[in-house]
Amino acid sequence: MDTETLKSKCTHLWRESGRLWLDFRTQTSAIHVDALERKWITISLLVIGLMVTIITLDALFDGINPPSKVETIDSASLHLSEEFAEDNLGVQVDDKGKVTIRMVAGRYSFFPKHIDVPAETQLTFRWVSMDVLHGVHIPMTNMSTMIVPGYVAEVTTTIPKPGEYPMLCNEYCGLGHNHMWSNISVIAKEDWQAPAKTLVKGGKP
Amino acid sequence: MNEAAERKLALYHLWVAFGAFIVACFMGEYQVLERSGFIAALDSPTVYFASVSTHGVLMGFVLTTFFIMGFGYYTATTSLKQPVWNKPLAWGGFWLSLAGTIMAAVPLLSGKASVLYTFYLPMQAHVAFYIGATLLVVGSWIWCVIMLVMFNQWKKANPGLPVPLAMFATGANAMLWLWASAGVALEVLFQAIPLALGWIDTVDAGLARTLFAWTLHPIVYFWLIPAYTAFYVFVPKQAGGYLFSDEMARAAFIILAVFALPIGFHHLYMDPEQAKGWKLLHGIGTFVVALPTLVTGFTVIASLEIAGRLRGGKGLFGWIGTLPWSNPMVLSVILSLLMLIFGGFGGIVNASYAMNAMIHNTAWVPGHFHLIFAGTTVIMYFAIAYYLWPMLVGKPLFSNAMALVQLWLWFIGMSIMTTPWHVLGLLGQPRRISSVVYNNLLTLSWKPYELMMIFGGLILLGSACLFIYNLVKTQLNPVATDFTQQVEYAEPIHPLTNLPEFLNDLSLWNKVIAVLMAISFGFPILQFFIMDTFESSGWGY
Questions:
Q1: How far is B463 from chain A (nearest CA, A)?
Q2: What's the CATH code, domain A71-191?
Q3: Per-residue pLDDT tens digits for B450-491
Q4: How far does B340 lie from chain A, in Å, by closest CA?
Q5: Which CATH number is associated with domain B4-527?
Q6: Domain ranges of chain A
Q7: B438 noted as active-site residue
Q8: Can you give the residue ranges of every domain in chain B?
Q9: Is B360 among the catalytic positions?
Q10: SS (H, E, C) B437-479
């Protein structure tokens, strides 16, 4: 097909959709809408518009987004992967001071069972499942994510208040689901000591 | 028109629906008791998760689908004033759905399908569960086809006339459900059944969740549309007035049907397999679909005001007192709207992209959907049943007073049960746990709320029993009376003139849905076939 026919086709399609739109507009304006109802619809649209604007601006400019990294991993061979091999699990700090926490979820626990993290510090959690679907949240914080087998769930957050927190599995994963939980100690920033662990070799810090 | 055959068809569907409902109500009360841990002898995850799975399927698939089908057949025949098209096919759909329900019930009740209502691949249930659920859905597709055929036949026979509003809503719901159920059908046919039969060894859990999310949002509008239909076509007449705007009602149903579909990713906000841009797009669509609900609230309240003023109500709020509160339909709509206001507020928290992180998969979520579904929606199912039962069985309602008590109890019970449920979610309690075994002080703060929930559940169970009792007594009433009441559809206060074709036909909207679905689900599904993904083998539970 040469460019001329393509161009004329496009113009035709453009005109056609314009005509459809005008037709739609004319028909819409013929509908009887009560003046009070028109006001209510306007107010509703404004309120909805305001909420959508706030959410979109937060997402685009402040980076407030849910965990959405779309990173795949073979859940069946985590133990052979460099990043999630047993030695690499838990809290690690890289040379720039970035804190990364690698956790494995499996029926019925989170591994390692207990971790210490600093308060008021940006934490990057990387969660993987070694079997079925799990979910995890730390109550009273916004550390929450689904852990879907085959994918790495990454959450970056800061926990403001020191204390002992549970980490709870929040997705049904089998009859022992109730027993799937572990603990996290959030320690005041100045008291926290980075674990003496080597930097992860094959991972993506 | 002699509609005896249609009445029988509707009655069979509605009895299956309410039969499933009462069984599931008893399970609900058991679950809230077991979960609290107050009675040690009840503690059993095996029984609990089998019960939760069955409760979810009975309420979410059986009560709703059979109710919608039965209500749809009767609405179609009475609003179009023509018999149901192809009755043998309709009965075929009924028996197919019933066979599917029974086939799924056996593994559910024997603990062979404790995968909950949302399936959770790569966890596997007995194959009979998936096949049964499929048959139930295929039976409902037959209903969709019959509704759309009747819609188009009537339009052809009455060119230029507006399709009756009740039928317009039912047709829109049939279109919605055909689109909505395609997602879960793909998941079951290409992933769950082949995995359960051993034809394939692995499935992609991310793809499974994406396909389920396709269905998971519009399905709630499939349930809700009959309630909204009653708001628009029964309530104004029962209150003694007129429908405020027929055109806006049609617009609301269209926006519901179109925008309920491309927004399922708000169920996947916390999931790692979809990117943030798609989630944001679906999130914005989720807010758009609030518009028809806001319009519906306005139209229904305005219609009630017209009725209240016609009955002599004066002043800014005087018309509220003059409404016929002793009419079950009017009482139900008031209580339903009250629950919708609170449930809608919670829904906005869930829909808010990032705020959702605080309540995702906590007890807040079942609190929310019980308020919106079991509250707002099911109370209108009660109202419709109280209104239609006398016409379906040809006898007056056994007790109007009992109906009013039942509706009030349902509202009170639902308020007492769902308020602490929301609070528990804010206190961090996960949903879907059968007992609390976390060795943490936080759990102490959960106890009083669990006690309240048991009490709320008891009130709901009592209310549900009263409902069934009233229907049974109405039907078995030996008194032969000349009961000749017919269904009355509300008249709009402004007669319908200049109704544009796009508010009287569904084909344009079907195309719009196709485009929106391609945009919002096209790449997110395609990505699983482009990326290097690693599938999971099946797991027991």
A1: 30
A2: 2.60.40.420
A3: 999 999 999 999 999 999 999 999 999 887 667 788 899 988
A4: 16
A5: 1.20.210.10
A6: 3-61, 71-191
A7: no
A8: 4-527
A9: no
A10: CCCCHHHHHHHHHHHHHHHHHHHHHHHHHHHHHHHHHHHHCCC
